[in-house]
Amino acid sequence: MTSRNWVKLFINTLIIGGLTTVVTGFFVRWDEFEPLFADADFLEVLSVFIWLVGVGFIFSLLSQMGFFAYLTVHRFGLGIFKSVRLWNSVQAVVVAFVLFDLIYLRYISFAKEGEGAVSYVIPALIVLAVGLAVAWQKMRQTNKEAFIPALFFMVVGTVIEWFPVLRVNEGSWLYLMLIPLLVCNGYQLLVLHKLNEKSLEERKKLEGKKPRQAQKQLKPSK
Predict the structure, then answer these.
(1) What is the tens place of the pLDDT at every residue in 130-172?
(2) C-alpha–C-alpha distance, residues 206 and 200, integer Å
(3) Which end of the chain is more exposed for a tag (fewer CB within 10 A), N or C?
(4) pTM
(5) Phi first, then psi: what are they for 111, rounded to 5°?
């Protein structure tokens, strides 16, 4: 990927993270922010908006670090297992374990006596559903081998990035962080191959210009 397209990916993901966090923040914490709108305290609303954008930028940076870390891990995995099918099988098993642990470990750690498991299952289902949707779209845009790696990143990568809030288990923060992470992760997955293709085209054009420039320099002056 060219530096220009990498910067484009970075800035777009940053903006998406900020805007998604603003929308999610006002939705999941509406009980806290509703009085500000009722009192028409626009200065306070603006400060909350700026704060949410800043938090969204942080979530976006976590997403981008996780994404580029996964690209490295994916290359190592292919190199170690020497087979796309075998590496995809390993990733599928890890996805299953992570989803199970996301429900089971959170339940045994935070569930109160008599509390059901529904509130612990729902976040895992959201992660899985979004992961499947993004992986399916990625497969349609590229090839069938891309499904499991995309699902792996959307599930395992998101859960790892989400871990600081999972440890606290505060309801509004869980979703305030989860939704922007899923959106940013999905965006990066779905746009990566397009930016790579664009970068390849730009390189070909640049390489085509160099021989023409060399030929012009070699032409004898009249």
Answers:
(1) 999 999 999 999 989 899 999 999 999 999 999 988 888 777 8
(2) 10
(3) C
(4) 0.86
(5) -65, 135
